[in-house]
Amino acid sequence: MTTSYPLNTEQQLQLEQYYYREARLLDSRQYQQWLTLLSQDISYTMPSRSNVQIDNRERGNEAMLSIEHELEQAESMGCPIREENIIHLSVRVERAYKMNSWSENPPARTRRIIGNIEALRAEQEALEVVSNFHLHYSRPGHATTLYSGQRQDRLLPDGDTVFKIVRRIVIMDYAIIEAPTMGLLF
């Protein structure tokens, strides 16, 4: 069983405010400011998910139902949906502001609801945090879509932005994705 890392009320509030600010920046299309929340060494991945059969040899053990069994990582035979670093993310941000960015013209309207923000552990200065999200995506003339999932982050303290995201793993709640785009920043 994974237990929470104890934060005092002020630390928990600071952590939650950080995530709410990040959501506001993304929903306001302030992508360049969002980039300042990221470490230059960021690893941003979104593993694909598969529908695996339950291993009955693990019956009675929580590992039998572990989500980790469903995730396709780069080192496995599968292929992650996203595997990016600061250069990839910077290019994606720059592309949003280009005149020929037709795929986002008119820009999509998004609303992120971030919750269940929980610090799991601290290693030296890094803080391991999980959070859940709902992302409402709307494009004029198209059906709206709701994305949901979990983010597993590693944060380092930073004077300017409180934290820097060093690692983000986005785990979507879907194995079969019928959404119009996975090019969003979660």
From TrEMBL:
<protein>
    <submittedName>
        <fullName>Uncharacterized protein</fullName>
    </submittedName>
</protein>
<dbReference type="InterPro" id="IPR000391">
    <property type="entry name" value="Rng_hydr_dOase-bsu"/>
</dbReference>
<dbReference type="Pfam" id="PF00866">
    <property type="entry name" value="Ring_hydroxyl_B"/>
</dbReference>
<dbReference type="InterPro" id="IPR032710">
    <property type="entry name" value="NTF2-like_dom_sf"/>
</dbReference>
<keyword id="KW-0223">Dioxygenase</keyword>
<keyword id="KW-0058">Aromatic hydrocarbons catabolism</keyword>
<comment type="similarity">
    <text>Belongs to the bacterial ring-hydroxylating dioxygenase beta subunit family.</text>
</comment>
<keyword id="KW-0560">Oxidoreductase</keyword>
<comment type="pathway">
    <text>Aromatic compound metabolism.</text>
</comment>
